[in-house]
Amino acid sequence: MSPITRQLFALLLIHAVLVTLGLHVVFSVPRAATLAHHLDAFAARSQAGDSWKPMAAARVTASEHPGASIYEDVFFRHQTKFQYPPSALLFVGSLERPALNAISWCAVWLTVLFTVVLFEGNLRQTATPIGGLADTTLRTLVLAALALTFYPLLKAYSLGQIQVWIDLAFAALVWAWWRGAPALSGVALGIVCLIKPHFILLAGWGLARRQWRFAAACASTVAAGLALSLAAFGLPTHLDYLRVVSYISRRGEAFYANQSINGLLNRSFGNGDSLVWHGNAFPPEHAGVYAGTLLLGAVCVGAALWLPRRAAHGSLLDLSIGALTIVIVSPIAWEHHFGILLPLLAVTTPRLLSGPPAGRWTPVVLGGAFVLTGQYFEPAQRLASSWLNVLQSYVLIGALVLLAVWHRAARRSFSTASPHRVISG
Questions:
Q1: 3 state SS of 69
Q2: What is the pLDDT of residues 13-61, one digit of tens each?
Q3: Is the distance from CB of 8 to CB of 142 less than 8 angstroms?
Q4: Pairwise CA distance, residues 185 & 175, whole Å
Q5: Residue 334 DSSP one-character state
Q6: Rounded (to 5) percent helix, strand, coil in the chain
């Protein structure tokens, strides 16, 4: 067994078996509150309706009141948390739950496939010994198991979240970038933006890095989708969506599953219930939370744009920093939103292990970040009423550790520490 396969196997054993079993045995966490429960749901092809129910309510309103604002009725009057842009409804159309479930189930498998392909492809571009056919086969199975037991991906599926579709589109984005197809990567980003508009910031990153084809393809895709959405749902709904975005950005969510900077601040200030999900309410506006979200978000975005060395601009490492930064600075970044980490980890980890930015501790640091972002630690919620409630943000902590490692690599000599493929504009 090659060293890299041995490391991955050890990570799988710790992450999927020892941590999950330890939580159940040592901390008496019920199976329903562990990773195993979501794996059970995926195996049984069982989904809830976290995205599908509010989308269905929006579709009914659009059908019954053509041209009227969807959000005035669904979001503000009935307090249903339909937080997607109108263009997101174009993707689900009139599909019923069985079809949505089937697409989601396939999306999970395709995301796993992209993850394996990206890791193996990037591994072969390093000097790392990879072993023979048997070793490669074993490593492929281990990689697939790691991806399939990544909590954000499984949680998105079991919740019935369109996030798994976003995960697939984002994996395709990363794959196209790696293959040197910036236009195709931009189209994938455009699809993501039509469901989660804040990712348009990644197109801004592309402009800052002079990746013109990437940014232009994204803009074209968004423009085409927006034109279709305007024709289908009318201008009032689209203008009202801006009111929804403003409303949410000034509040965020205190519930523990919000692993953004905003979620950390809401919980730190005791602004809202972090243990109970309120499907029809948000925490009250809090000046400190709002200001802190904006300030820390600006610092993170500034770091993503200006800290990487010029030689690293436009690289896979640079892309990864930009994408993860966008997630953590969003007012709401649920645990399942971190599913985009799978393809990012797949393209960065082989390089980081061959040119370790944290020295011999690099595998340990990366493995720890994977476990923190890829598990559910129910005992952390028992700290909600104490000053240690910061530990409820363990996913955010893992993401920040990962960002720190990526930033360190991007600040080192590009030729030795981060030889990712660079796409010219």
A1: coil
A2: 999 999 999 999 999 999 999 999 999 999 999 999 999 999 999 999 9
A3: yes
A4: 8
A5: B
A6: 75, 0, 25
